[in-house]
Design goal:
The chain is α/β, with parallel strands linked by helices. The chain has a seven-stranded mixed β-sheet, covered by helices on one side. It has a six-stranded antiparallel β-sheet with strand order 4-5-6-7-11-12, with helices on one face. A five-stranded parallel β-sheet has the order 15-14-13-16-17, with helices on both faces. Helix 5 (234-252) runs antiparallel to helix 18 (514-523), helix 12 (391-399) crosses helix 13 and helix 14 crosses helix 25 (610-630). The longest helix is centred in the last third of the chain and has 21 residues, at 610-630. It is globular, with a radius of gyration of 24 Å.
């Protein structure tokens, strides 16, 4: 795992390239504290900070092809690198290292861009073709690893994290009002959004080639949720799911350092802990979060799992004050507005994991999206069939939706929710039927902004421009939206990758193996009760995991939101409503922000609902992003802690 940063077609003199590239890498050194290297020529400067995991001795970057034509700066892991290496070797390709990075490079040299379709991995990279002068940027199919691109005058800037841009001369951040409105409304930046003017994120499964003054963009991996021919029987489906998950875990256990497991106490991470023990032949080290607030705590399930598997387990106990005190620094690493505080405990957990000497962990992200684990999928199923059901069936289904939410509990709660659900049985937002109810919360958060325009215009364009989207079922559309929005924009990014790499920890997600996602698409809804989420996963592993975990049902990972700030840091009231800060930010509705802040701090925490909690965290994170990025305080002026290895192909560096 690594971080990359660089620039191309800059009008700056090449003599300055080394210093600028080194300064950009210094901003993201936390991603790869083991080594640093860069490639320079008269048009391009690009570099890598490396977290050494595979081929510790000889896997340094940048890496060049034997003929010197291609140079690669790579962030990520190619899990099937051994298979691709063998295939390339069979075609006469020679290798100098044992690293997956060199396999990526030689695959491109041999197959060109079509090599991307062969990759099973989590990656983002920059590749310079010194013959054509082209710069190629690419990102993995599920958006596991980040890659941002910015235009600054004639120059192209790119980096794993936007904070690297602060080291490029003259670059400044400014909020993009349209991006913020969309993010507040839909809970997350959309695939190409960054939150800032002139900065974009390369979307999942896409590439960008800069060729002179022209660019070429395209998608190399589409999200296919239609699935193939389903297994004939439930037993066959269970066997196939097991086989695909075992293979996915095997690939992600490939490492020259120890691999641990995040064990939340839920079904997905428990499956991974079991498979890691089974495939590696010994219990893994497991790590989890415990909360002082019992509403969010899963300690009992964690202890039962780790005792059952015999793992070496350690935890981080998180209080309200921990969340609030760590919030600013966690936001600095998140880089984008955030709608809940659950990413902060993950920051603390990754810090603990690294202090225990572990660099790699398996994590359960992607399981709910692939195997329909979220309540929103049951919502879509219920709402799409609403008019075909009698009242008793609606009530029965309602009881299966969100048993962990207090306002959904009991018959009275179910009847109250029936009234809410009736409002969303018709599609009023084209293409977004499954998410209409969710987006109601976003409508409230958008009121924080001075001029929100149409905050749903971007997400409507996203689905309208997607080939084949209109033909998907209501549940598949919900699934597509989760993959393309909340998963890639928040769960994999803010809550997962950014928090882990803040401490030089790489997380790997077996449930996002392409074969596992394809298998899930072929079996979802075909066996068992579709309102019993992840039915086949429970069938597949119910006999090897504690019954309490299997029968528990979905309990989403959450953390205290506005209540934590009210209880432990009442001075945030003044911070969030400070007239000078709000005026400087410019995009917020100062009057509404002050009224809203007073309401949150003057109300008992239990009276603050979900939409207010989300709006509060979005507001707080935006205020800190203004401090870190718009005002430029995220820039670190300390040099790299490790020597910078330089491949210098500038004209001035060549012999006369």
């Amino acid at each position: 795992m690594c971080g990359i940063a660089g620039f191309h077609a800059s009008p700056l003199h090449p003599e300055s390239y080394r210093d600028i590239a080194g300064a950009m890498l210094a901003q993201i050194e936390h991603r790869g504290p083991d080594e640093a290297g860069c490639f320079l020529d008269d048009r391009t400067a690009m570099g890598t900070v490396r977290l050494s995991i595979i081929d510790l001795a000889s896997g340094s970057q940048p890496v060049g092809s034997p003929d010197g034509r291609y140079w690669l700066c790579y962030n990520g892991e190619l899990y099937n690198y051994r298979e691709l290496r063998a295939e390339l070797a069979g075609r006469g390709v020679s290798f100098r290292t044992e690293s997956d990075t060199e396999v990526v490079l030689m695959a491109w040299a041999h197959w060109g861009r079509s090599c991307l379709e062969r990759f099973n991995g989590a990656f983002a990279f920059a590749l310079k073709d010194t013959v054509t002068g082209e710069l190629h940027l690419a990102r993995d199919r599920f958006g596991k690893r980040p890659l941002y691109v910015a235009r600054h005058g004639d120059a192209w800037l790119f980096a794993s994290e936007m904070k690297a841009f602060l080291a490029y001369p003259g670059f400044e951040f400014a909020f993009d009002g349209e991006h913020l409105a969309s993010t507040f409304a839909t809970w997350t930046p959309l695939p190409a959004q960054s939150g800032y003017r002139g900065v974009e994120q390369l979307p999942m499964g896409e590439y960008l080639t800069v060729r002179g003054t022209e660019t070429e963009r395209g998608r190399w991996a589409a999200l296919d949720l239609t699935g193939g021919e389903p297994p004939a029987t439930e037993d066959e489906a269970v066997d196939l799911v097991r086989a695909d998950l075992e293979a996915a875990v095997d690939l992600r256990l490939r490492s020259d350092v120890e691999v641990g497991v995040y064990a939340s106490g839920g079904l997905d991470s428990s499956i991974l802990a079991h498979l890691t023990k089974e495939r590696a032949g010994l219990p893994p080290r497991t790590f989890s979060i415990q909360f002082e607030d019992a509403e969010f705590d899963e300690t009992a399930e964690q202890e039962e799992l780790t005792k059952h598997l015999g793992t070496h387990h350690s935890t981080v106990r998180v209080s309200d004050s921990d969340v609030v005190e760590t919030f600013p620094e966690a936001v600095r690493h998140a880089e984008v507005p955030v709608f809940r505080t659950a990413f902060v405990p993950m920051y603390l957990l990754a810090q603990h994991v690294r202090s225990e000497g572990v660099k790699v962990v398996l994590s359960g992200e992607g399981a709910d999206e692939a195997f329909l684990g979220y309540g929103i999928f049951k919502d879509a199923r219920l709402l799409s069939s609403w008019h075909e059901l009698d009242e008793a069936t609606r009530m029965r289904r309602m009881a299966q939706l969100y048993p962990y939410l207090r306002h959904f509990s009991g018959e009275d709660g179910h009847r109250r929710m029936l009234g809410l659900y009736r409002q969303f049985t018709e599609e009023t937002m084209p293409g977004l039927f499954s998410h209409q109810m969710r987006f109601q919360n976003g409508r409230f958060a958008v009121r924080l902004l001075k001029d929100a325009g149409d905050p749903f215009a971007a997400v409507r364009r996203l689905v309208a421009e997607e080939p084949g989207y209109a033909e998907l079922s209501a549940v598949q559309k919900a699934q597509w939206l989760e993959f393309r929005t909340l998963l890639s924009g928040y769960l994999l990014a803010t809550q997962g990758e950014r928090m882990a790499l803040a401490h030089g920890v790489e997380n790997r997600c077996p449930f996002l193996d392409p074969a596992v996602v394809r298998r899930a698409a072929s079996v979802n809804g075909r066996f068992g009760d579709p309102y019993d989420e992840k039915y086949l996963l429970k069938r597949a592993y119910g006999d090897v995991l504690p019954e309490r975990i299997v029968r528990k049902g979905k309990f989403p990972y959450r953390a205290p939101d506005s209540a934590a700030f009210v209880r432990s840091r009442p001075d945030y009231r003044d911070l969030l409503a400070d007239p000078g800060t709000l005026g400087d930010i410019g995009v917020l509705d100062e009057r509404f922000v002050r009224r809203f802040t007073d309401r949150v701090f003057d109300s008992p925490p239990e009276r603050i609902g979900t939409k207010e909690n989300q709006a509060f965290v979005l507001l707080a994170s935006t205020v800190w992003l203004h401090h870190w990025y718009v005002r430029g305080n995220a820039r670190r002026d300390t040099p790299l802690a490790v020597p910078l290895y330089v491949v210098d192909r500038r004209s001035s560096a060549l012999p006369a």
